[in-house]
Amino acid sequence: MIDIKFLRENPDIVKENIKKKFQDRKLELVDRVIELDVESRRAQTEANELRADRNRLSKEIGALMKQGKKDEAEATKAKVNAAAERLAELEAKETELAASIREIMLTIPNIIDDSVPVGRDDSENVEIERFGEPVVPDFEIPYHTDIMERLSGIDLDSARRVAGNGFYYLMGDIARLHSSILTYARDFMIERGFTYFDTAWMYCDYKSENAVKAAVVDRHPRDSFTLTTKLHNMYVHSFEDRDKIFNEQLRKTGVEYFDYYLLHDVNVHSYETYKKYDCYEWLKEKKAKGLTRHIAMSFHDSADFLDKVLTEWPEIEFVQLQLNYLDWDSLGVQSRLCYETAVKHGKKVVVMEPVKGGTLAKLPERVETMFHEHSPAASNASWAIRFAASCPEVFMVLSGMSDMQQVLDSYTVKSGDTLSRIAICSRCSTTPRTCRTSSRSTTRSEQLSSPPSTL
């Protein structure tokens, strides 16, 4: 889903992207979501002002009571009660607007990379590179989806209705086979000491935490792995929602505590929601009760804003950042500046997007040649992972995988040693082409308070 901040600041780019996708019927949605966003922020501003007034007046009431000015205190209480009704209206409005905005945002297509040629369907795909000559056998080769359909192992129609053409759901024995391969990959890494598993409430259509239970929690002793999950501001519309989600996460994963619990996707907008519902103090309480052993956050915003957040939330133990050599000096992502800000506050860093969604796995020929000459057996992706892991305060690198070869590649960096801080990610067994990250893992020897030495 496109970041609402990006859409707000770049509506013309979003509209042009919609045209490139030949979905002109959605152009009006951009203006509509901007209108709703303005209305939502206006309501949020008024609500924040009312909360500030309420806090101020509450202090005045206490002072007046101490002074024996009971009538004035009662009059001030009346003001607080009157403001409470308006605040309740605004909070209900915020919830309604947030739901409307999310519904629209989910239908607006993501931005196409500039390198992607525009075409109406796959018949207009452009061939970029060809290796060798195709071998044409003297018999008909069935397409892989035809094979899976004959085995009743794929549902194209349902996936098409949900995600469009080119996507599929796996079913029956094919889904079980796929799940078994993922389980093998997880067992492979756990047996070699990679034990950090990362999931979240909303990943894979809310099924990721169930998948972690089936693949890890039900199959391995609790002290043989560490588990991370997250709370996303988009699903918090009341104080009660915090515990409701947290308790459901415990149930779905089948654990009694989490090793790491994160406030997810902290940015200038989500921060207001987390503050509104006092999520930082709530998270500290969970740690005090032993329901999570460490508290942290994932972050997507500027280094200046990260400095503000870490100043206000000093007990956050680490920050999960997008960090790779392409974004290192990016004005938008600010990988280096955010990393340096975290270090300034004495925080460890967990890295996401070390290969930038696969971008750094396929490099210009000149760059690939340089890498190959230095270390012929090392993959492009392994160089990107090594860059992220080499930052002294990085204690974990989360790297997405989509097949067993990538798992093996991430396990061993062909320079003579094993990269012990890499984490692996596997994909949901039901929608392998459309899902979000379901789980990642890293070494058992890793402890937040004692990260491994720099590679």
Describe the protein's architecture and organization.
- By secondary structure, the protein is an alpha/beta fold.
- Helices cover 49% and strands 13% of the residues.
- It contains 17 helices and 13 strands.
- It has helices spanning 4-9, 11-20, 27-66, 70-105, 144-150, 156-163, 172-191, 203-206, 208-217, 239-253, 270-276, 279-288, 303-312, 335-344, 365-374, 380-389, 404-411, and strands spanning 154-155, 169-170, 196-198, 226-232, 258-266, 292-299, 318-322, 348-352, 394-400, 412-413, 417-418, 422-426, 439-441.
- It has a 9-stranded mixed beta sheet with strand order 3-4-5-6-7-8-9-12-13.
- A hairpin with a 3-residue loop joins strand 10 (412-413) and strand 11 (417-418).
- Helix 13 (303-312) packs parallel to helix 14 (335-344).
Give the rounded overall mean pLDDT.
83
Distance N terminus to C terminus?
35 Å
- Measured by DSSP, the beta-strand proportion falls in 5-15%
Beta strand count = 13
User: What characterizes the major β-sheet?
Assistant: 9 strands, mixed
